[in-house]
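User: Assemble these into one structure.

Assistant: Restating your components, then the assembled model:
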Amino acid sequence: MSLMNSIDRNPLEEQVRLVSRYVAGDLSRSERAEFEAWLVASPELAAEVEMERRLRRGIASAARRGWLKRTAPERLPRQRRWQMAIAASVLLTVGLGVSLLISGEDGIASTGQRLLSRSGGPANSPLVVRLGKMRSLSGSPDIRLSQAALPSQLIVEPDVVVLTCADGAIELECAAGGTPQTPQYTEYEVDLVNRRGSTLAWRSARQQPVMRTQLSFTLRDPGNLEVGEYDLIVRGHSADHEEIVGRFWVQVSAR
Amino acid sequence: MSSPAADEIARIVAEALTGDRQAEGRMLQALRPGVLAVLRFGAFHRWIDAEDLTQETLQVVVERVRARTIDDPRKVFAFAAATARNLALNAARKMLRQQTVVDSELVDELAQNLEMEQSDLSDADDRQLAQAVAQLLEELPTERDRQLLMRFYLDGIDKQQLCQELGLSPKHFDRVLMRARSRLRTIIERRAPHLALFPRITSILLPLAMSFTVWVRHFGSW
């Protein structure tokens, strides 16, 4: 059955479902071709697709910034309440344990699931820097900090996560026709290394990518950095392997 | 493809296929949002310049329409989508091939090319988008709908599982998603109109410029 026939029978549900599946990369190759022909023919559908992307990105961004409160659902079906009560107890116990373990660390835990339950923004302006790949090879620093006007926090969001197929292969399209969906490494961390003496100035907690590719590392007190040049090194970690996946140039000046 | 807008576009493309130059310009303008959406697909968009490739795709499409080798609007849509996909794949392949030589002397050159990796949103725009989404979530009528969106989009929980856990029907799930998109569009249009999906000036001028380019190229004079 073609996608279009399916949509003709049940337009709203099918369109919502297809737009979500398309943006998530879950359509097969043939479904994708059919959907994209329809997309080209319909600016309205294109607007839906764009808004789906905006929604996904906006939610992830709001979560990283600590603007989303995550609480339990207010109403559950009667027959499932006992199951959810047990699950909630287990989650609460695990959550308390994890909270104790990660207290004092930076804003995102290594599980990547503690998505900033704080409310409101920080007191002073943090600096959020989004970095592409290998920018340090250009002629100027990727991040410039001045000790005269330091941000309250430095939040680094490197775009370094490569998606692979389920078998770990780095391909543009996987064997089944879908797009790569699995981050190459399960965890990522950042080192800030002072070039003078190659000393480690800061190491982040490890974290898993959010929404498959998004990382956000928070240096809580940039005021501790000395004047000088630094390498900001992003490492990917798997169970038996680690690799530098991004390297950036940070400059701290006196003024 | 039963919506009026799509039918109207099919009619415009059919007119363009008869050689109507004015319809050609309208066709390019109508196809642009969809082509751009295709080029921003999935993982590839990080490696391509979607705006440039949209222009390239539409150039190929208009040349094919003028050559009269396609006779059905539906085939034009499929051709445009396939052309966009192929151009995106080629650009991504080129980028990935370049990434395999990160230790060679070509690195500097590669670093220059990687400027095209920049996000389509600035930090300020990303912040405004996050604010809009936070407002959207705040305005949702029930905590359950909020949980639905966050767990679906942030945690990646699939629809079936969420419907079971939250006691929702699939129809209700779809309605929440649809309303969320619609409401987000309204909020963005009010708070940050430049982030809404209004056509950029290039999207208006581009079809005119391309029609003119193709016209000059084919007929060699003004």
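Chain B is about 75% helix and 0% strand.
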